[in-house]
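Supplementary Text 2. Reproducibility record for the structural model of the 341-residue chain.

All settings were left at their defaults, and a single model was retained for analysis rather than an ensemble. We include the record here because the model underlies the residue-level annotations in Supplementary Table 4.
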Amino acid sequence: MNEQADLPYVSVVILNYNGAKFAESCLRSVLATDYSNIEVIVVDNASTDGSCEFIRDLFSNMSRVKLIRNQRNLGYAGGSNIGFKHASGDVIAFLNVDTEVDKEWLRESVKALSSEKVGAVQSKLIKLQDRRTIDSAGWSFDRLGYAHWRYISPDGMSSNRPHELFYAEGVAMAIKKSVLSEVLIDGEPFDSDFFLYYEDTDLSWRIRLRGHEIMLVPTSIVYHQRSFALSEQQYHMTYYFTRNRISTLIKNYSLINLVRWIPLLLLLELARGVILLRNKPFKARAKLRGIIWNIKNIGRLWKKRSIVQSTIRKVPDAKIVALIQPPNFVTLYKSTQPIIN
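Retained model, structure tokens:
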């Protein structure tokens, strides 16, 4: 008798884009996990490095592995939506291809999801700073107050006690399919307009507005390379961060908080753009472009906002703002300055 037969069926969605040097180790670690009741769906975002063909040739004889190749790069949001549409599991776990999982990673995630209150869980990411909170203006911070990316050793995340996060990182998160079905917009969990960055924050915000909790599970360990997709394309990173940060607030805040925070956010973005002009003019241009996109697409955004506010929302902002911290203006200013080694 299979002792795992009664465990929830899990669809593991792995997003690949030019991940040739990571794909084999990622998939082998997932297939070796101590949880057999799974299917593995690899979504390839039109890779050009041969990684899709490599995955096909290496794992084609494994019935649990399904490979889907997109004709063009749909970004994290669009690619993950494709995986969701092909998923049959009661739980859907999302992974980047530049990850490797601990043997008990999935079992621990599923255990945490057994609580009726918990809708999504975040694995403990080694090499990636635990930064799953945001401030009121939408900037993401780690628990030490640093803005954006910063690395720490595993010792910096040594607590083994689960605790709440504002949002789950798309690199390695697991969500109940029933919860995802409650927060869809146009039949999709992730906003395809986002392409990449903040799509996990936006989805998590909807999950919280629906009344579900999001937990960090330190015993569910995932190793993340954090390395290759857009690490050197700072213009695109700045553009999508700026654009999607604004969009996320427009869609998810109540009207009173929207009026309170959007003008401040726009002022801060413009001020940061002015500061960046001297040292990083390409970033200043990217910020301006991100702001303009939201202005030009406000009608499109407002339709999505209407769905969130009238159909998805079940709890007021007051229920979830405890996990949102006030803006740290000193840190935001420092993040615009050149790094001196």
